[in-house]
Design a protein that fits this description.
Length: 483
Protein backbone atom coordinates (compact mmCIF):
# COMPACT_ATOMS: atom_id res chain seq x y z
CA UNK A 1 0.00 0.00 0.00
CA UNK A 2 1.29 3.47 -0.89
CA UNK A 3 1.79 5.62 2.15
CA UNK A 4 -0.32 8.79 2.44
CA UNK A 5 2.76 11.01 2.27
CA UNK A 6 3.61 9.60 -1.16
CA UNK A 7 -0.01 10.05 -2.27
CA UNK A 8 0.15 13.70 -1.22
CA UNK A 9 3.39 14.18 -3.17
CA UNK A 10 1.94 12.53 -6.27
CA UNK A 11 -1.19 14.68 -6.10
CA UNK A 12 0.86 17.82 -5.53
CA UNK A 13 3.10 16.96 -8.49
CA UNK A 14 0.12 16.21 -10.73
CA UNK A 15 -1.47 19.52 -9.80
CA UNK A 16 1.77 21.37 -10.55
CA UNK A 17 2.09 19.61 -13.91
CA UNK A 18 -1.51 20.48 -14.79
CA UNK A 19 -0.89 24.11 -13.85
CA UNK A 20 2.26 24.19 -16.00
CA UNK A 21 0.36 22.68 -18.93
CA UNK A 22 -2.37 25.29 -18.54
CA UNK A 23 0.21 28.08 -18.55
CA UNK A 24 1.82 26.69 -21.70
CA UNK A 25 -1.55 26.48 -23.44
CA UNK A 26 -2.36 30.06 -22.45
CA UNK A 27 1.02 31.66 -23.04
CA UNK A 28 2.89 29.17 -25.20
CA UNK A 29 2.71 31.18 -28.41
CA UNK A 30 5.12 33.93 -27.22
CA UNK A 31 7.45 31.12 -26.13
CA UNK A 32 7.51 29.71 -29.65
CA UNK A 33 4.86 27.00 -29.29
CA UNK A 34 2.33 26.87 -32.15
CA UNK A 35 -1.30 27.75 -31.53
CA UNK A 36 -3.58 24.75 -31.10
CA UNK A 37 -5.42 25.94 -34.21
CA UNK A 38 -2.25 26.59 -36.24
CA UNK A 39 -2.19 23.12 -37.85
CA UNK A 40 -5.80 21.99 -38.38
CA UNK A 41 -6.46 18.60 -39.94
CA UNK A 42 -7.17 19.95 -43.41
CA UNK A 43 -3.75 21.65 -43.61
CA UNK A 44 -1.85 18.36 -43.75
CA UNK A 45 -4.42 16.64 -45.96
CA UNK A 46 -5.78 18.51 -48.97
CA UNK A 47 -3.35 21.39 -48.50
CA UNK A 48 -0.25 19.26 -48.45
CA UNK A 49 1.22 20.96 -51.51
CA UNK A 50 3.89 18.34 -52.16
CA UNK A 51 1.53 16.34 -54.39
CA UNK A 52 -1.48 16.73 -56.68
CA UNK A 53 -4.70 15.67 -54.94
CA UNK A 54 -7.91 14.24 -56.39
CA UNK A 55 -11.40 15.72 -56.08
CA UNK A 56 -14.45 14.04 -57.62
CA UNK A 57 -17.65 16.10 -57.83
CA UNK A 58 -20.63 13.76 -57.79
CA UNK A 59 -23.72 15.62 -58.98
CA UNK A 60 -26.99 14.54 -60.58
CA UNK A 61 -27.16 17.01 -63.47
CA UNK A 62 -23.84 18.58 -64.38
CA UNK A 63 -25.33 20.01 -67.56
CA UNK A 64 -27.91 21.99 -65.59
CA UNK A 65 -25.21 23.17 -63.18
CA UNK A 66 -23.06 24.50 -66.03
CA UNK A 67 -26.05 26.09 -67.75
CA UNK A 68 -27.04 27.95 -64.58
CA UNK A 69 -23.54 28.66 -63.28
CA UNK A 70 -23.90 32.40 -63.79
CA UNK A 71 -26.61 32.56 -61.12
CA UNK A 72 -24.02 31.57 -58.47
CA UNK A 73 -26.59 29.45 -56.64
CA UNK A 74 -25.50 26.56 -54.43
CA UNK A 75 -26.55 23.03 -55.34
CA UNK A 76 -25.87 19.94 -53.20
CA UNK A 77 -23.31 17.38 -54.28
CA UNK A 78 -21.06 14.67 -52.88
CA UNK A 79 -17.37 15.58 -52.91
CA UNK A 80 -14.76 12.85 -52.78
CA UNK A 81 -11.38 14.23 -51.72
CA UNK A 82 -8.45 11.84 -52.05
CA UNK A 83 -10.91 8.94 -51.92
CA UNK A 84 -12.90 10.17 -48.90
CA UNK A 85 -16.54 11.17 -49.50
CA UNK A 86 -18.31 14.20 -48.00
CA UNK A 87 -22.05 14.46 -48.69
CA UNK A 88 -24.45 17.36 -49.06
CA UNK A 89 -21.68 19.85 -49.84
CA UNK A 90 -22.74 23.16 -51.38
CA UNK A 91 -21.32 23.75 -54.89
CA UNK A 92 -21.51 26.90 -57.00
CA UNK A 93 -19.52 28.83 -59.59
CA UNK A 94 -17.46 31.82 -58.45
CA UNK A 95 -15.83 34.92 -59.90
CA UNK A 96 -16.56 38.39 -61.25
CA UNK A 97 -15.18 39.08 -64.71
CA UNK A 98 -13.92 35.51 -65.03
CA UNK A 99 -17.40 34.12 -64.44
CA UNK A 100 -19.00 36.65 -66.78
CA UNK A 101 -16.51 36.02 -69.58
CA UNK A 102 -16.64 32.24 -69.20
CA UNK A 103 -20.40 32.50 -69.69
CA UNK A 104 -20.14 35.00 -72.57
CA UNK A 105 -17.67 32.81 -74.48
CA UNK A 106 -19.90 29.76 -74.04
CA UNK A 107 -17.31 27.91 -71.97
CA UNK A 108 -17.89 25.43 -69.16
CA UNK A 109 -14.71 25.56 -67.05
CA UNK A 110 -15.79 27.77 -64.14
CA UNK A 111 -13.94 28.42 -60.94
CA UNK A 112 -15.94 26.81 -58.12
CA UNK A 113 -16.75 27.13 -54.44
CA UNK A 114 -17.32 24.17 -52.13
CA UNK A 115 -19.07 25.00 -48.85
CA UNK A 116 -19.23 22.09 -46.44
CA UNK A 117 -21.74 23.70 -44.06
CA UNK A 118 -24.10 25.11 -46.69
CA UNK A 119 -26.66 22.31 -46.30
CA UNK A 120 -25.42 20.57 -43.15
CA UNK A 121 -25.01 22.63 -39.99
CA UNK A 122 -21.44 22.17 -38.81
CA UNK A 123 -20.36 20.32 -41.96
CA UNK A 124 -16.63 20.53 -42.57
CA UNK A 125 -13.59 18.89 -44.13
CA UNK A 126 -11.29 18.20 -41.18
CA UNK A 127 -12.14 21.61 -39.76
CA UNK A 128 -12.41 23.51 -43.07
CA UNK A 129 -15.72 25.20 -43.80
CA UNK A 130 -15.13 26.36 -47.39
CA UNK A 131 -12.64 26.03 -50.23
CA UNK A 132 -12.50 27.23 -53.81
CA UNK A 133 -11.27 25.55 -56.97
CA UNK A 134 -9.50 28.09 -59.13
CA UNK A 135 -9.80 27.38 -62.86
CA UNK A 136 -6.65 29.34 -63.88
CA UNK A 137 -8.74 31.70 -66.01
CA UNK A 138 -6.39 33.79 -68.19
CA UNK A 139 -3.46 32.02 -66.57
CA UNK A 140 -1.86 29.61 -69.02
CA UNK A 141 0.97 29.00 -66.56
CA UNK A 142 -1.45 27.68 -63.88
CA UNK A 143 1.05 29.29 -61.49
CA UNK A 144 0.24 32.97 -61.01
CA UNK A 145 -1.97 32.58 -57.95
CA UNK A 146 0.19 29.82 -56.45
CA UNK A 147 3.38 31.86 -56.75
CA UNK A 148 1.78 35.08 -55.47
CA UNK A 149 0.54 33.27 -52.36
CA UNK A 150 3.97 31.72 -51.85
CA UNK A 151 5.51 35.21 -51.99
CA UNK A 152 2.98 36.53 -49.48
CA UNK A 153 3.61 33.63 -47.12
CA UNK A 154 7.37 34.17 -47.45
CA UNK A 155 6.85 37.76 -46.26
CA UNK A 156 4.85 36.59 -43.25
CA UNK A 157 1.44 37.76 -44.41
CA UNK A 158 -1.52 35.55 -43.34
CA UNK A 159 -2.22 33.76 -46.60
CA UNK A 160 -4.76 31.14 -47.76
CA UNK A 161 -3.38 27.62 -48.04
CA UNK A 162 -3.44 26.16 -51.54
CA UNK A 163 -2.55 23.02 -53.46
CA UNK A 164 -3.30 21.49 -56.85
CA UNK A 165 -6.14 19.03 -57.39
CA UNK A 166 -7.12 16.87 -60.34
CA UNK A 167 -10.87 17.39 -60.57
CA UNK A 168 -13.27 14.84 -62.01
CA UNK A 169 -17.05 15.07 -62.42
CA UNK A 170 -18.93 11.84 -61.79
CA UNK A 171 -15.64 10.04 -62.37
CA UNK A 172 -14.89 11.76 -65.71
CA UNK A 173 -11.83 13.99 -66.08
CA UNK A 174 -12.54 17.72 -65.78
CA UNK A 175 -9.11 19.28 -65.27
CA UNK A 176 -6.36 20.60 -63.02
CA UNK A 177 -7.53 23.24 -60.55
CA UNK A 178 -5.90 25.08 -57.67
CA UNK A 179 -7.65 24.29 -54.38
CA UNK A 180 -7.61 27.37 -52.14
CA UNK A 181 -8.61 27.75 -48.50
CA UNK A 182 -11.40 30.35 -48.42
CA UNK A 183 -10.86 33.00 -45.74
CA UNK A 184 -13.70 32.27 -43.35
CA UNK A 185 -13.91 30.79 -39.85
CA UNK A 186 -11.30 28.03 -40.27
CA UNK A 187 -8.85 30.44 -41.89
CA UNK A 188 -9.38 33.00 -39.13
CA UNK A 189 -8.93 30.40 -36.41
CA UNK A 190 -5.78 29.02 -38.03
CA UNK A 191 -4.16 32.43 -38.40
CA UNK A 192 -5.48 34.40 -35.43
CA UNK A 193 -6.45 31.82 -32.80
CA UNK A 194 -9.80 30.78 -31.37
CA UNK A 195 -10.65 34.33 -30.21
CA UNK A 196 -10.25 35.80 -33.70
CA UNK A 197 -11.67 39.15 -34.76
CA UNK A 198 -13.84 40.22 -37.68
CA UNK A 199 -13.24 39.39 -41.35
CA UNK A 200 -14.67 41.27 -44.34
CA UNK A 201 -14.35 41.05 -48.12
CA UNK A 202 -15.13 44.59 -49.32
CA UNK A 203 -16.43 44.63 -52.88
CA UNK A 204 -18.02 47.13 -55.20
CA UNK A 205 -21.62 47.03 -56.39
CA UNK A 206 -20.80 48.87 -59.59
CA UNK A 207 -17.58 50.34 -60.93
CA UNK A 208 -19.63 53.37 -61.97
CA UNK A 209 -20.11 54.26 -58.30
CA UNK A 210 -17.49 55.85 -56.08
CA UNK A 211 -17.13 52.82 -53.75
CA UNK A 212 -15.30 54.94 -51.18
CA UNK A 213 -15.77 52.30 -48.51
CA UNK A 214 -14.10 49.62 -50.66
CA UNK A 215 -11.15 52.01 -50.96
CA UNK A 216 -11.15 52.19 -47.12
CA UNK A 217 -11.86 55.90 -47.14
CA UNK A 218 -13.53 57.49 -44.14
CA UNK A 219 -16.98 58.80 -45.09
CA UNK A 220 -18.58 59.68 -41.75
CA UNK A 221 -19.23 58.13 -38.35
CA UNK A 222 -22.32 56.18 -39.42
CA UNK A 223 -21.61 52.46 -40.04
CA UNK A 224 -24.53 52.43 -42.52
CA UNK A 225 -22.37 54.55 -44.82
CA UNK A 226 -20.13 51.52 -45.43
CA UNK A 227 -22.43 48.92 -47.02
CA UNK A 228 -19.76 47.46 -49.29
CA UNK A 229 -17.81 46.46 -46.18
CA UNK A 230 -20.44 45.43 -43.67
CA UNK A 231 -22.74 43.66 -46.13
CA UNK A 232 -19.73 41.52 -47.01
CA UNK A 233 -18.87 40.51 -43.44
CA UNK A 234 -17.82 36.87 -43.09
CA UNK A 235 -19.14 36.76 -39.51
CA UNK A 236 -22.06 38.61 -37.97
CA UNK A 237 -20.74 42.02 -36.97
CA UNK A 238 -22.08 43.63 -33.80
CA UNK A 239 -22.63 47.35 -33.44
CA UNK A 240 -19.40 47.53 -31.45
CA UNK A 241 -17.55 45.73 -34.28
CA UNK A 242 -18.90 48.20 -36.81
CA UNK A 243 -18.01 51.21 -34.69
CA UNK A 244 -14.44 49.99 -34.12
CA UNK A 245 -13.85 49.58 -37.85
CA UNK A 246 -15.28 52.99 -38.69
CA UNK A 247 -13.11 54.58 -36.00
CA UNK A 248 -10.06 52.85 -37.46
CA UNK A 249 -10.91 54.30 -40.88
CA UNK A 250 -11.26 57.75 -39.29
CA UNK A 251 -7.80 57.49 -37.75
CA UNK A 252 -6.41 56.21 -41.06
CA UNK A 253 -7.88 59.22 -42.84
CA UNK A 254 -5.98 61.64 -40.59
CA UNK A 255 -2.62 60.08 -41.40
CA UNK A 256 -1.61 60.37 -37.73
CA UNK A 257 -1.17 57.79 -34.95
CA UNK A 258 -1.61 55.11 -37.59
CA UNK A 259 -0.32 52.28 -35.43
CA UNK A 260 -3.40 52.73 -33.21
CA UNK A 261 -5.58 51.73 -36.18
CA UNK A 262 -3.38 49.71 -38.56
CA UNK A 263 -0.96 46.80 -38.22
CA UNK A 264 1.57 48.93 -40.07
CA UNK A 265 4.34 46.35 -40.18
CA UNK A 266 2.20 43.61 -41.72
CA UNK A 267 0.48 46.00 -44.13
CA UNK A 268 3.86 47.16 -45.44
CA UNK A 269 4.89 43.54 -46.03
CA UNK A 270 1.61 42.93 -47.88
CA UNK A 271 2.17 45.93 -50.14
CA UNK A 272 5.74 44.83 -50.87
CA UNK A 273 4.44 41.73 -52.61
CA UNK A 274 1.29 43.37 -53.96
CA UNK A 275 3.33 46.02 -55.74
CA UNK A 276 5.88 43.51 -57.00
CA UNK A 277 3.31 41.24 -58.69
CA UNK A 278 1.77 44.14 -60.62
CA UNK A 279 -1.80 43.21 -59.75
CA UNK A 280 -4.12 46.07 -60.70
CA UNK A 281 -7.30 44.07 -60.24
CA UNK A 282 -6.81 44.90 -56.58
CA UNK A 283 -6.81 47.57 -53.88
CA UNK A 284 -4.09 49.41 -55.82
CA UNK A 285 -6.07 49.31 -59.06
CA UNK A 286 -9.18 51.09 -60.27
CA UNK A 287 -11.45 48.32 -59.01
CA UNK A 288 -10.06 48.69 -55.48
CA UNK A 289 -11.19 45.19 -54.46
CA UNK A 290 -9.87 41.59 -54.28
CA UNK A 291 -8.61 41.69 -50.72
CA UNK A 292 -9.82 40.66 -47.28
CA UNK A 293 -9.96 43.10 -44.39
CA UNK A 294 -9.30 41.78 -40.89
CA UNK A 295 -10.10 43.84 -37.79
CA UNK A 296 -9.28 42.93 -34.21
CA UNK A 297 -9.25 45.31 -31.24
CA UNK A 298 -9.59 48.24 -33.63
CA UNK A 299 -6.49 47.30 -35.68
CA UNK A 300 -6.85 46.76 -39.45
CA UNK A 301 -4.93 44.27 -41.58
CA UNK A 302 -5.24 43.65 -45.32
CA UNK A 303 -4.99 40.07 -46.59
CA UNK A 304 -4.25 38.69 -50.10
CA UNK A 305 -6.83 37.30 -52.51
CA UNK A 306 -7.23 36.52 -56.24
CA UNK A 307 -4.12 36.72 -58.40
CA UNK A 308 -5.09 35.17 -61.74
CA UNK A 309 -4.71 38.60 -63.41
CA UNK A 310 -1.47 39.55 -61.69
CA UNK A 311 2.00 39.99 -63.20
CA UNK A 312 0.80 42.78 -65.44
CA UNK A 313 -1.97 40.83 -67.17
CA UNK A 314 -4.94 42.81 -65.87
CA UNK A 315 -3.99 45.43 -68.45
CA UNK A 316 -5.11 42.94 -71.09
CA UNK A 317 -8.71 43.45 -69.97
CA UNK A 318 -8.69 47.26 -69.84
CA UNK A 319 -10.39 49.56 -72.34
CA UNK A 320 -7.07 51.16 -73.26
CA UNK A 321 -4.62 48.46 -72.21
CA UNK A 322 -0.96 49.03 -71.54
CA UNK A 323 0.76 46.26 -73.46
CA UNK A 324 4.31 47.56 -73.43
CA UNK A 325 6.22 45.08 -71.28
CA UNK A 326 8.97 47.66 -70.70
CA UNK A 327 6.42 49.94 -69.05
CA UNK A 328 4.76 47.21 -67.00
CA UNK A 329 7.82 45.34 -65.73
CA UNK A 330 9.54 48.61 -64.81
CA UNK A 331 6.40 50.00 -63.16
CA UNK A 332 7.46 52.19 -60.23
CA UNK A 333 7.42 50.69 -56.77
CA UNK A 334 6.95 54.01 -54.96
CA UNK A 335 3.88 55.14 -56.90
CA UNK A 336 2.36 51.85 -58.09
CA UNK A 337 -0.75 53.54 -59.54
CA UNK A 338 -1.72 56.85 -61.03
CA UNK A 339 -2.15 59.80 -58.68
CA UNK A 340 -5.94 59.78 -58.97
CA UNK A 341 -6.01 56.20 -57.67
CA UNK A 342 -3.25 56.64 -55.07
CA UNK A 343 -4.91 59.61 -53.42
CA UNK A 344 -8.01 57.47 -52.98
CA UNK A 345 -6.16 54.52 -51.40
CA UNK A 346 -5.39 55.75 -47.86
CA UNK A 347 -4.12 52.40 -46.59
CA UNK A 348 -1.17 52.78 -48.97
CA UNK A 349 -0.97 56.52 -49.52
CA UNK A 350 -1.25 57.68 -45.90
CA UNK A 351 1.34 55.17 -44.70
CA UNK A 352 3.84 56.16 -47.37
CA UNK A 353 3.63 59.82 -46.33
CA UNK A 354 5.61 58.87 -43.21
CA UNK A 355 9.36 58.76 -43.75
CA UNK A 356 9.75 55.95 -41.18
CA UNK A 357 7.16 53.71 -42.83
CA UNK A 358 8.40 54.55 -46.31
CA UNK A 359 11.93 53.54 -45.32
CA UNK A 360 10.62 50.34 -43.73
CA UNK A 361 8.72 49.53 -46.95
CA UNK A 362 11.99 49.82 -48.85
CA UNK A 363 13.75 47.59 -46.30
CA UNK A 364 11.07 44.95 -46.79
CA UNK A 365 11.46 45.21 -50.55
CA UNK A 366 15.19 44.64 -50.12
CA UNK A 367 14.56 41.61 -47.87
CA UNK A 368 12.02 40.23 -50.32
CA UNK A 369 14.32 40.55 -53.33
CA UNK A 370 17.39 39.16 -51.58
CA UNK A 371 15.56 36.35 -49.75
CA UNK A 372 13.15 35.21 -52.45
CA UNK A 373 14.85 35.98 -55.77
CA UNK A 374 18.55 36.60 -55.42
CA UNK A 375 19.24 33.29 -53.66
CA UNK A 376 17.35 31.12 -56.18
CA UNK A 377 14.29 30.33 -54.06
CA UNK A 378 11.85 31.67 -56.67
CA UNK A 379 13.20 29.55 -59.51
CA UNK A 380 13.30 26.45 -57.31
CA UNK A 381 9.66 26.83 -56.22
CA UNK A 382 8.50 27.65 -59.75
CA UNK A 383 10.27 24.74 -61.43
CA UNK A 384 9.50 22.16 -58.74
CA UNK A 385 5.83 23.08 -58.89
CA UNK A 386 5.80 23.07 -62.70
CA UNK A 387 7.38 19.61 -62.72
CA UNK A 388 4.69 18.35 -60.34
CA UNK A 389 1.73 19.65 -62.33
CA UNK A 390 3.05 19.22 -65.90
CA UNK A 391 1.63 15.69 -66.51
CA UNK A 392 -1.81 16.89 -65.40
CA UNK A 393 -1.73 20.06 -67.51
CA UNK A 394 -0.74 17.97 -70.54
CA UNK A 395 -3.92 15.88 -70.28
CA UNK A 396 -6.26 18.58 -68.95
CA UNK A 397 -9.46 18.18 -71.05
CA UNK A 398 -10.82 21.67 -70.28
CA UNK A 399 -7.56 23.66 -70.39
CA UNK A 400 -7.74 27.21 -71.71
CA UNK A 401 -4.56 26.60 -73.71
CA UNK A 402 -2.44 23.91 -75.35
CA UNK A 403 0.34 22.21 -73.41
CA UNK A 404 2.90 24.02 -75.57
CA UNK A 405 1.29 27.35 -74.68
CA UNK A 406 1.42 26.33 -71.03
CA UNK A 407 5.15 25.67 -71.25
CA UNK A 408 5.65 29.05 -72.93
CA UNK A 409 3.62 30.72 -70.18
CA UNK A 410 5.74 29.15 -67.43
CA UNK A 411 8.93 30.35 -69.13
CA UNK A 412 7.35 33.79 -69.58
CA UNK A 413 6.30 34.01 -65.93
CA UNK A 414 9.83 33.13 -64.85
CA UNK A 415 11.24 35.79 -67.16
CA UNK A 416 8.73 38.41 -66.00
CA UNK A 417 9.49 37.83 -62.32
CA UNK A 418 13.26 37.84 -62.72
CA UNK A 419 13.17 41.03 -64.77
CA UNK A 420 10.73 42.61 -62.32
CA UNK A 421 13.10 41.73 -59.46
CA UNK A 422 16.00 43.24 -61.39
CA UNK A 423 14.01 46.42 -62.01
CA UNK A 424 12.86 46.69 -58.38
CA UNK A 425 16.47 46.30 -57.22
CA UNK A 426 17.51 49.10 -59.58
CA UNK A 427 14.70 51.29 -58.25
CA UNK A 428 15.77 50.69 -54.64
CA UNK A 429 19.33 51.65 -55.55
CA UNK A 430 18.26 54.79 -57.41
CA UNK A 431 19.42 53.56 -60.82
CA UNK A 432 15.88 53.28 -62.21
CA UNK A 433 13.09 55.81 -61.54
CA UNK A 434 10.76 54.59 -58.78
CA UNK A 435 7.90 57.03 -59.44
CA UNK A 436 5.55 57.60 -62.36
CA UNK A 437 6.91 61.12 -62.82
CA UNK A 438 10.46 59.80 -62.88
CA UNK A 439 9.51 57.23 -65.50
CA UNK A 440 7.94 59.96 -67.63
CA UNK A 441 11.13 62.02 -67.39
CA UNK A 442 13.41 59.03 -68.11
CA UNK A 443 11.35 56.61 -70.24
CA UNK A 444 14.49 54.91 -71.50
CA UNK A 445 15.63 53.95 -68.01
CA UNK A 446 14.89 50.45 -66.74
CA UNK A 447 15.54 46.82 -67.58
CA UNK A 448 15.01 45.74 -71.17
CA UNK A 449 11.82 43.68 -71.24
CA UNK A 450 11.05 44.17 -74.93
CA UNK A 451 11.42 40.44 -75.66
CA UNK A 452 8.64 39.56 -73.19
CA UNK A 453 5.07 39.04 -74.43
CA UNK A 454 2.70 39.23 -71.46
CA UNK A 455 -0.08 37.89 -73.68
CA UNK A 456 1.65 34.51 -73.41
CA UNK A 457 0.44 34.35 -69.80
CA UNK A 458 -3.19 34.33 -70.97
CA UNK A 459 -5.32 36.42 -73.33
CA UNK A 460 -8.80 36.51 -74.82
CA UNK A 461 -7.73 34.52 -77.86
CA UNK A 462 -7.24 31.56 -75.54
CA UNK A 463 -10.92 31.69 -74.59
CA UNK A 464 -11.96 31.36 -78.23
CA UNK A 465 -9.53 28.47 -78.73
CA UNK A 466 -10.79 26.62 -75.64
CA UNK A 467 -14.47 26.38 -76.56
CA UNK A 468 -14.28 23.30 -78.80
CA UNK A 469 -12.15 21.43 -76.28
CA UNK A 470 -14.39 22.29 -73.31
CA UNK A 471 -17.53 21.38 -75.26
CA UNK A 472 -16.06 17.93 -75.90
CA UNK A 473 -15.19 17.45 -72.23
CA UNK A 474 -18.67 18.52 -71.18
CA UNK A 475 -20.24 16.10 -73.62
CA UNK A 476 -18.14 13.26 -72.20
CA UNK A 477 -19.44 13.97 -68.72
CA UNK A 478 -23.03 14.31 -69.90
CA UNK A 479 -22.91 11.05 -71.84
CA UNK A 480 -22.27 9.25 -68.60
CA UNK A 481 -25.70 10.43 -67.51
CA UNK A 482 -27.14 11.20 -64.14
CA UNK A 483 -25.98 9.31 -61.09
Amino acid sequence: MIKSAWIDRICTGAAALAALLAILLMFGEPLGLPKASASPGYASRLFNSSRVHTIDLQINDWGAFVENAGKEEYVPCTVEIDGEAFRQVGLRAKGNNSLRLTEEYGLSRYSLKLEFDQFIDGGNYYGLDKLSLDASFQDNSYLKTYMAYDMMAFMGVPTPLCSYAWVTVNGEDWGLFLAVEEPEEAFARRNFGKDFGQLYKPDYRSLKEENADVALKYIDGDPDSYPNIFENAKFKASEADRERLVEALRVLSTGENLESAVDVDEVLRYFTVQVFVMNWDSYLGRTGHNYFLYEEDGILRILPWDYNLSFGTYALGMTNPIKDSNVLINYPINTPAEGEVMRNRPLYHNLMKHDEYFARYHRYFDEFLSGYFENGRFEAVLRQTEKRIAPYVERDPTAFCSYEDHQLAVDTLEQVCLLRAQSARGQLEGKIPATIRGRQEQPEAGVDASAVSLAALGDFEDLEWAKEKQDAALETVLQKGAL
